[in-house]
Amino acid sequence: MKDRNHLAKVGLIHQVKIVEDGLIDIPMLQVLRPDGSVHPEADLPDISEPCCIKMLETMQYIRLLDERMVAAQRQGRISFYLACTGEEASTIGSAAALAPQDMIMSQYREQGALAFRGFTSKEFMDQMFSNQNELNKGRQMPIHYGSKALNFMTISSPLGTQIPQASGYAYGQKMAGLDAVTICYFGEGAASEGDFHAGLNMAAVLNCPVIFFCRNNGYAISTPSEEQFAGDGIASRGLGYGVRTIRVDGNDVLAVYAATEQARKIAIEQQCPVLIEAMTYRLAAHSTSDDPTGYRSKDEEERWRLKDPLQRFKNWLDSKGWLNQANNVNFIEQTRQDILKELKLAEQVPICAVEQIIEDVYDTPPWHLRAQLADLKTHIEKYPESYPKTAGRS
Q1: pLDDT in tens, 11-41
Q2: Is 368 a catalytic residue?
Q3: Are residues 77 and 339 in contact, defined by beta-carbon separation less than 8 angstroms?
Q4: Beta pairing class for 223-224 and 219-220
Q5: Residue 13: its pLDDT value, please?
Q6: Where are the alpha helices (DSSP H) in the chain?
Q7: Is pLDDT above 60 for 323?
Q8: Of these residues, 39, 74, 295, 393, which one is catalytic?
Q9: I want to staple 258 with a disulfide (CB 3.0 to 4.6 A). Which of 45, 113, 156, 189 is the partner?
Q10: C-alpha to C-alpha distance for 168 and 178, rounded to whole angstroms
Q11: Catalytic residue from among 109, 237, 286, 312
């Protein structure tokens, strides 16, 4: 058994010294200015034109998808939706820097990462309408996506549970000797959950190749950051747990790409966790159940619209001569039509039979689940008007 000394890295002083906020400055990486021009001293990531065009088109696709599905919720066609308007660069820029074999564990505003990997409009719509074509058999509420084929773990509603799960999954990747990492997305509000602290500590102690990606968009639903924590954002917490940490402009897709690319390199080569805090802003409501006018001003929103990540990236692409305006306009129109077409098709597909609700947990459903299913059918038959899609099919 080796001797241990937990004071080995502790220096000595001989007068009382109070460590205060601000002694450690955590800067924010920014490559593109808000107008899309490059900072003279910035190092551009080594990224190809096709990859950049794919990132732009995915950002545009997600914005169109968000607009259409918020409208669909308002029309009563789906029950719930979460848009990521304003945060597209953070999720898509980071996903672009990953390898296909890397596992993605998401919160609920990372549809851009899934779309970048190839999730189709049909698959998005089947999930949101919970129909019988949906990969998870309609058992999740809208926007709780998952795809085994795309290494995208199915989203769960409880906030922050994916954080310790990501540490465990990454530890498994390490034990298997895989050339892969796990990336775990969450908001700064989720970092107030106990799971955040357990997950980071586990990853740091066990040297798990996991990237913790925090989207700090300034609000945990209606609670602003200054009412959530008094410290220097989320980045300082990574340092507290001994995790390598990067803070990046979450509205600058090139900076996010560069930060994630470097984080993945470190996680693979050194078999350790990395925390990225992406400083961004949620231009949309928290969800379709939220009214942001109750907790923030229109002037504040407009100031952040000037930092729109999509327009910033378009300006840079245009300056490089990589943006064909006619092709891009055509892409947007075709995408809009494709989204609407798949929406109309998905809402006509029947939902799964109610009997399937007790399948896939046990090889044979046990007696207590069969009894609960019988009670559920009785309830639906008693109140058919409350279950228009299910009544008559149970």
Answers
A1: 898 989 887 766 678 999 999 999 999 999 9
A2: no
A3: no
A4: antiparallel
A5: 87
A6: 49-74, 88-96, 111-116, 121-128, 162-175, 194-206, 235-240, 253-270, 298-305, 309-320, 325-346, 367-382
A7: yes
A8: 295
A9: 45
A10: 14
A11: 286
* CA dist., res. 89 & res. 249, Å (int): 9
The answer to whether 209 touches 271, Cβ cutoff 8 Å, is yes
The single residue of 63, 109, 282, 312 carrying the catalytic annotation is 282
282 is catalytic: yes
Q: Which two tokens stand for residue 112?
A: 């851009």
Q: Kindly report the backbone phi and psi dihedral angles of residue 304, in degrees, each rounded to the nearest multiple of 5, phi listed first.
A: -80, -25
For residue 140, give both structure tokens.
């999740």
Position 6 scores a pLDDT of 84
Q: 291: exposed, middle or buried (C-beta count within 10 Å: 0-12, 13-18, 19+)?
A: exposed
| Type and span of the H or E element at 185 | strand 182-187
* 284-292 long-range Cβ contacts below 8 angstroms, 24+ apart: 284/66, 284/70, 284/83, 284/84, 284/85, 284/86, 285/83, 286/82, 286/219, 286/221, 286/222, 287/80, 287/81, 287/82, 288/70, 288/73, 288/74, 288/80, 288/81, 288/82, 289/80, 290/221, 290/222, 292/222
CA gap 30, 279 in Å, rounded: 10
CB-CB neighbours of 198 under 10 Å? 14
Clarify whether 33 is annotated catalytic: no
- The rounded distance, in Å, linking the Cα atoms of 381 and 377 is 6
